[in-house]
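Appendix C: a fully annotated inverse folding record. The material below is reproduced so that readers can follow the format used throughout the book. The structure is listed first as tokens, followed by the designed sequence.
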């Protein structure tokens, strides 16, 4: 598996653009450069053991193959995302940026150009006019050039690249292991045996890669699955508790309320209200989000207003 994020949206070889309204997204990684423009509510992110609260209007840039997580938020956050394949621009493969937030990295005139160009590229991308892919790929090259010209970065050594690849491969296996086993008793020692590593080593690895313990991650997957069942079915809460891998309903109910500020029954009612916002539980165990369709994206951009002076 080369990437852990699959976006069901129109794609051009080497790049893609989409508008996403996200409530949460568990740790994930992909092989592209990813530029996010937060549009309405704050976006809470963990990346490289650091937590960020990205404010509306801010731009952030993720380097390829760098795990990051979108945390539970009070309001779903809408963002415009541009993903650019490092394989389409081979000279960037060995680069790693030292700062995710772009605020203050670019001169005001370059930031204004960047926002204008991203919006123009998105409109052409979603219009799907003849030869639009030529325009979009060309603009991606200009955007990436402008970003890497100003954003602090360094060239990764062969050792750093090998370590990152080893980390991401193991992280992928760990996520798959949890996905396949979370509905019953699961222990880090079981995965350690498969990996030929000590539990202590893997415990440190999970904390470093995910900024949480192994059990916390397992519970997050279980809760995500439980929330999906609560929102989409009328199954009794006790049945959902056991089906999601929890063995004690009182623990499940108490932990659920502590994590989400409401009981499972209250969450079921709130999920009905989410239909109006079109935030539906996705097929994935790891997210609650809505990827806008091409038609919805064009309509959104038609009504989106960005004042260039705000970035200057």
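Designed amino acids, in order:
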């Amino acid at each position: 598996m080369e990437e852990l994020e699959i976006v069901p949206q129109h794609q051009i070889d080497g790049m893609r653009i989409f508008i996403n309204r996200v409530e949460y997204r568990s740790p994930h990684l992909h092989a592209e450069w990813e530029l996010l423009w937060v549009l309405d509510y704050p976006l809470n992110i963990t990346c490289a053991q650091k937590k960020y609260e990205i404010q509306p209007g801010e731009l952030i840039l993720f380097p390829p193959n760098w795990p990051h997580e979108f945390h539970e938020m009070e309001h779903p956050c809408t963002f415009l995302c541009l993903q650019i394949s490092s394989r389409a621009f081979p000279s960037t493969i060995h680069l790693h940026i030292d700062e995710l937030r772009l605020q203050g990295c670019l001169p005001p005139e370059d930031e204004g150009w960047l926002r204008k160009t991203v919006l123009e590229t998105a409109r052409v991308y979603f219009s799907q006019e003849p030869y639009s892919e030529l325009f979009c790929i060309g603009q991606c090259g200009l955007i990436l050039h402008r970003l890497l010209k100003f954003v602090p970065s360094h060239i990764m050594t062969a050792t750093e690249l090998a370590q990152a690849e080893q980390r991401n491969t193991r992280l992928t296996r760990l996520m798959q292991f949890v996905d396949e086993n979370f509905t019953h008793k699961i222990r880090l020692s079981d995965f350690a045996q498969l990996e030929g590593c000590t539990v202590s080593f893997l415990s440190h690895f999970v904390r470093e890669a995910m900024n949480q313990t192994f059990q916390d991650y397992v519970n997050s997957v279980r809760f995500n699955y439980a929330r999906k069942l609560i929102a989409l079915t009328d199954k009794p809460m006790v049945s959902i508790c056991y089906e999601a891998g929890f063995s004690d309903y009182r623990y499940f109910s108490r932990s659920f309320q502590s994590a989400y500020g409401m009981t499972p029954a209250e969450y079921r009612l709130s999920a009905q209200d989410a239909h109006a916002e079109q935030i539906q539980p996705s097929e994935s165990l790891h997210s609650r989000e809505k990827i806008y369709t091409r038609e919805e994206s064009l309509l959104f951009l038609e009504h989106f207003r960005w004042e260039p002076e705000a970035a200057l």
